[in-house]
Amino acid sequence: FKEINHGNLITLADFYGVSVDYLLCRTENREQINTPLTELHLNDEMVALLKSGRINNRLLCELATHKDFIKFLADIEIYVDGIATMQIQNLNALVDTVRHEIIERYRPGEDDPHLKVLQAAHISDDEYFSHMVLDDLNRIIRDIREAHKKDSESAPQTTVADELKENLEAVENFKGSRDEKLVILYCKQLGINYKNLSEEEFRWLIRILKKSKKMGTPISQRKKR
User: Cβ(50)–Cβ(57) under 8 Å?
Assistant: First the structure.
C-alpha cells in the first residue's frame, strides 16, 4: 500500500472542484465552504447543539432539505403566529350562529341530523394544525426511510426468525439423509451456497459438523421425556 502525497491530493481535489477535506470525507460541504456563521442566523443554543454530537446532524440535514420541509415549517409558523386562528374562530362563530338560528326557528331535537352536522363542522385550531403538521412530517420521514432502506445500518426487512423459518422449510423439502439436511441448514445460516460445494467438500463438512453436539438435535422433532 502506497500513500498518496499531498500534492496529488490537491491536484485531485482541484480536478473535481472540491476541497481536500471533502475528498477525505472530513466535511459534508462540497460547495458551501467556510460560510460565515452569522449568515446562518443560528442562535448560540443551536450552534452548541449542532456541535455537541447529541443529535444526528446528517438526518437533520435530510429533514431540512426535503422538498416538503418548507411547507412543514410554514404550517408550524402559521400555527405559532396565530395567523389562521382568527379565521378559524370566525368560521366557528358563523357555524354557531346558524346552529342557534335553527334551534330558535324549528326547535329540533338533540338528535337532529342537521344539528349534528353543524356540531361536527366546529373546528379546533389545535387539532387541525396538529393533524396538518403530522401529515407533513409523516411524508418527509417516510421518504427518508425509503431512501435508506438499502443502507447497511438499516434494519433488515426480514427478521432472524423469518429467515430461520424459511431455511427450515427449504431443508424439510430437501430429499436426503438427516445429516445432509442439517448440513444444508448450517450452510444456509452461514450464507454458504451448498450447491457450489463439491461432493468431497460436502462429505467433509458432514464429518466436521458431526463433531458438534448440536448435530444430535433433530430438525423438526421434540425430545421425548
Answer: yes
198-225 burial: b if 16+ Cβ within 10 Å, else e: eeeeeeebeeebeeeeeeeeeeeeeeee
For 42-92, what is each residue's pLDDT tens digit?
999 999 999 999 999 999 999 999 999 999 999 999 989 888 888 888 888
Residue 54 confidence (pLDDT): 94
Return d(Cα 75, Cα 69) in angstroms, integer.
Answer: 10
Provide, for the chain, the percentages of residues in helix, strand and coil under a 3-state DSSP scheme, each rounded to the nearest 5: 65, 0, 35
State the residue for C-alpha cell 421434540: 222
C-alpha distances (whole Å) from 22 to each of 12, 41, 61 are: 11, 24, 17
The pTM (predicted TM-score) of the whole model is: 0.55
| Residue 176 C-alpha from the chain's centroid | 43
Please state, in angstroms and rounded to a whole number, the distance separating the CA atoms of residues 127 and 85: 12
